[in-house]
Amino acid sequence: MKKPNLFIVGQPKSGTTALHDFLSEHRQVFMSGVKEPIFFSKDFHAESDSYHKSRIFYYFRTEEAYLKLFSNVNSEKIIGESSTGYLYSKVSAKEINKFNPKAKIIILLREPASFLYSLHSQFLNINAEIERDFVKALELESSRKQGKHIPKTVQIPSALFYSERVKYYEQVKRYYDIFDPSQIKVIIFEDFKLNNQVIYQEILEFLDIDTNFSPEYTGVNLRSSPRYKIVNQILYHPISRAIAYKLLPPEFNEFIKRNIVEKLFWKKDNTSSISIEVKNKLMKQFYSEVQMISQLTNIDMIKKWGYDKLK
Fold first, then answer.
1. What are the φ/ψ torsions at residue 102 (nearest 5 degrees)?
2. Fewer CB atoms inside 10 Å of the end CB: C or N, the chain?
3. Whole-angstrom Cα distance, residue 23 to residue 17?
4. 228 pLDDT more than 60
5. Cα-Cα-Cα-Cα dihedral of 281, 282, 284, 286, to 10°?
6. What is the pLDDT of residues 88-139, one digit of tens each?
7. How much is the pLDDT for 174?
8. If you ran DSSP here, which 8-state letter would residue 71 be given?
9. Is 303 exposed, middle or buried (0-12, 13-18, 19+ CB in 10 A)?
10. CA-CA distance, 261 to 231, in Å (whole number)?
11. For residue 96, which of 25, 162, 184 has the smallest C-alpha distance?
C-alpha cells in the first residue's frame, strides 16, 4: 500500500478544508476521504485519554487503521491528508518525518488575532468552549493551565490555551528543523482567500504535478454557525461522535458531517467580527511573534497582515 506523501498541517480556520477539497479534484492527487485523522499527534492522544479517562476522541491510533484511508489509491502521484492539529502538536513533525521523510508539507497561517477569534467561535459552535465572551476566554488561559474552567466536551484541555495556538515560529520551526525547506510550502490564508487560483497554481508547481487544471473554486472559510443549539449539542457530544465512529465507516461519517449535518443544521453567519480595539491590542501583543515567523519563512507577514501600520 502506498504511503501518504503530502500533509496539510494547519492552522485550523485558515483554508485547509478548501485546499483539501480543491486538491482532491486533481486527477494526480488522492486526498483522504476523512479530513483530520490526526494520526501523528500522539501527544494529543495521550492528553485526551488522560483528561477523559477513556478513549473517546482520536479514532486513528494504529498504522493499519490509518493506512486504510488510502486503500483506494490508484496511480495518483500525490497522496495526501489534512490534519490541522499537526502544527500545534509538539510531536507530529517528528512522527511524520519518521513515517515518510520525503513527504511534502503545506502550512497555512492566518493573522493571529483574527485566527484566535475565528477559532474561539468554532469552539463555541462545536461545544468545545464554555466562555462565550472572546476576551474573557483568552483571560481564562492561566486558570485553565491549572485545570480549571475546562469543558468536558473539549478534545484536549490545551486546545483552549489560546496564546499557545499562535506561537507560529515555534510550530513552523519544528518542520524546518527536520524537513528540507524545499519540502515545505507556507501559504498565507489571506492570500489564498483573495486569490484562489494564483495560490492553487503555486501549490501544483510545488507538488510537481500538472498545472493545467483548475478546480471548481468555492468560498474559503465561509463563517457559519449552528441553526439549532440543542441539536448541535447532541450531534457534537463526545458520546454521540464515538458511537457514530464505532457503527459507521470513517468516510461515511465524514460524508454525513459535511453533506448533511453542516448543510441542514448550520447556516452562513456574517453577523460577528472581532472589534478593532481588541484586534489592535492583540496585534501589538503578537508583533514579535509575527516578526520571528516572517524571518523564518522569508515572507513579510508584518506587511501582509498590517502590523506595519500599528501605532
1. -95, 5
2. C
3. 10
4. no
5. 170
6. 999 999 999 999 999 999 999 999 999 999 999 999 988 899 999 999 999 9
7. 98
8. T
9. exposed
10. 10
11. 184
Sort strands 224-226 and 266-268 into parallel, antiparallel or unpaired: antiparallel
Cα-based distances in Å from 192 to 14, 39, 88, 238: 9, 26, 21, 33
| CA–CA distance, 303 with 308 (Å, rounded to integer) | 6
Do 49 and 155 meet the contact criterion of CB atoms below 8 Å apart? no
> The cell 472572546 sits on which residue?
134
Residue 121 CA: distances (Å) to CA of 111, 115, 214, 280: 16, 10, 31, 19
C-alpha–C-alpha distance, residues 267 and 133, integer Å: 21
Q: What was the pLDDT predicted at 45?
A: 98
AA identity, residue 136 = K
Q: Which of 207, 210, 188, 209 is nearest to 199 (CA)?
A: 188
Q: Strand 224-226 to strand 184-188: parallel, antiparallel, or no bridges (unpaired)?
A: unpaired
Summarize pLDDT for 138-176 with one digit per residue, the tens.
999 999 999 999 999 999 999 999 999 999 999 999 999
Give me the residue label for grid cell 461545544. Answer: 127
pTM for the structure as a whole: 0.88
Cell of 252: 461515511
Domains of the chain: 6-223+272-309 (3.40.50.300)
